[in-house]
Amino acid sequence: MTNLGVLYGLGVGPGDPELITVKAFRVIQESSVIAYPKKLKGSKSYAHRIVDVYINPEEKDMLGLVFPMTKDEAVLEREWTKSVALVYEKLQQGKDVAFVTEGDPLLYSTFIHMMKLMQEKHPEVEIRTVPGISSFNGSASRLGIALADGDDRVAIIPAHDNYEAMREAIESHDAVVFIKVAKVIDLMLEVLRDLDLLDKASVVTKVTSDEEIIWDVRELDGVDLEYLTLMVVRK
């Protein structure tokens, strides 16, 4: 029987291709299969575009996997089962698979569910992760904001439409990074105004990438923001 390949969860950073680690670069070069989230419409995923400069698709087995943005459990189960099976098929052939994900593979990443399902269905598979620079680090750098100093308390929180919870998060921390902020930007602006902290907030889309936008927070009311947008509140 062919020895199984290794499944790598590869953090490729927040957007700038130069922000991948030397180790991530090496694993990309050495892995014969590059797995990446594939958009249904065929355009390249964010993680795929980050590593594009380092990959010759003619030399690699490019494995696009569909992860639908839905809460339909039946659809999710079907597509995730299919994706795990496709990856396992490559591993059975003795090929190492590098699953690329923006940011870090163990922090709000698609790879986390892939890892759990693979461990559940095929516990014999060896799984390794390569940490990556997160969008939080990238945002702090681009904005020139120190997220924590001394005994400061920092939180990373998915923004949602609960006014009291969002307000409490800001009040009880020195700095908060809100991810998934696009869908609730108006509520977040309301919280900031009520706390008189509008001047302490920054909003960035696709940080460090060539599509990066640093927004004027005072001009965001009603703006339709892209999914890869976060807000930093530093008191």
TrEMBL record:
One of its GO terms (molecular function) is precorrin-2 C20-methyltransferase activity. The keyword Transferase applies. Gene3D superfamilies: Cobalt-precorrin-4 Transmethylase, Domain 1 (3.40.1010.10), Methyltransferase, Cobalt-precorrin-4 Transmethylase, Domain 2 (3.30.950.10). Keywords: Cobalamin biosynthesis, Methyltransferase, S-adenosyl-L-methionine, Transferase. Pathway: Cofactor biosynthesis; adenosylcobalamin biosynthesis. Residues 7-216 form the Tetrapyrrole methylase domain. GO terms for biological process: cobalamin biosynthetic process; methylation. Belongs to the precorrin methyltransferase family. NCBIfam families: cobI_cbiL (TIGR01467). This is Precorrin-2 C20-methyltransferase.
